[in-house]
Amino acid sequence: MNWLDDIKWDRDGLVPAIAQEASTGDVLMVAWMNREALELTAQKGQAVYWSRSRGRLWHKGEESGHVQQVHELRLDCDGDVVLLKVTQLGHDPGIACHTGRHSCFYSVLREGRWQPLDPVLKDPESIYR
């Protein structure tokens, strides 16, 4: 049996993938993977996701240069979520979010409103073509 067969893919053939910074434990982002993306990630040692908005494979950093080097892949107890332990490359500190921030989880709920806490490290206009 192939290790990919152990995953419980959703009806669209996708599984949620959480990228966690190996050195700090910071949760950087959540994305989606199909079978091919996960297999390529394991082979390359770099994160490859399935972009639902683009409808295609997306090698993290293909435009921005903010590549995720994958150290370890983990599967949750239900087999329906993948965790990638990564080093975020391409900027110091690493930028995982398309908003130019370190993490996509930069807003906190305070007084009934989402307030951005983490700074923009690099203007997104200068990152993406």
Spatial order of strands in the largest sheet: 2-1-6-5
Number of strands: 8
Radius of gyration: 15 Å
Task: List unreliable stretches of 5+ residues.
Answer: none
SSE topology string:
EEHEEEEEEH
- The fraction of residues in strands falls at 25-35%
Helix content: 10-25%
Which architecture name does CATH use?
A: Roll
CATH level 1 name: Alpha Beta
* H/I helix tally: 2
Average predicted local confidence, pLDDT: 95
Largest sheet: 4 strands, mixed
- At CATH level 3, the topology is Ubiquitin-like (UB roll)
What do we call the CATH homologous superfamily? Phosphoribosyl-AMP cyclohydrolase
Instruction: Compute the separation of the termini in Å.
Output: 42 Å
Total domain modules: 1
Query: What general form does the structure show?
Result: globular
Overall SS class: mainly beta
